[in-house]
Design goal:
Layout lengths: L9 H8 L9 E3 L6 E3 L9 E2 L2 E2 L2 H11 L8 H23 L11 H19 L1
Antiparallel strand pairs: 1-2, 3-4
Length: about 130
């Protein structure tokens, strides 16, 4: 391994480093939104790369947009859809209104004695 005999001077070091230059990163324009983007990277503004959505969320949205609209529905089909929706709402209300099961707590001797005393007091007061 080579070992320098003397230390390199400041001017020689500066002359050697004179060709160290920073270069600007290559940028392109996003094909979807037109924002400047680093080359070979996903657009930070819209999430597209080479004209296609990259994230799963964007792919799902793109598929919804691409799907063809449904054929014109007939009046019978519209009525059937409305009744299905109404039945679903009624079923949801029925499920919500169902009583909840409660567990019975064991009565202790003290609690039953207190209840008996209070009922006796009430009957005495009502008799007066």
């Amino acid at each position: 391994m080579a070992v320098p005999k003397k230390r390199t001077g400041h001017s020689a070091q500066g002359k050697r480093r004179a060709n160290w230059k920073a270069t600007k990163p290559e940028t392109t324009v996003c094909s979807n939104c037109g924002q400047p983007v680093l080359a070979h990277t996903v657009c930070t503004a819209c999430g597209y790369y080479k004209g296609q959505p990259v994230s799963l969320k964007d792919k799902a949205e793109a598929e919804k947009e691409v799907k063809k609209p449904a054929k014109k529905s007939t009046k019978k089909a519209e009525v059937a859809e409305e009744t299905k929706a109404a039945d679903a709402v009624v079923e949801a209300e029925v499920v919500e209104d169902a009583p909840k099961k409660t567990t019975k707590k064991r009565a202790t001797k003290k609690a039953t004695e207190k209840k008996a005393e209070t009922t006796e007091e009430k009957t005495e007061e009502s008799a007066e």
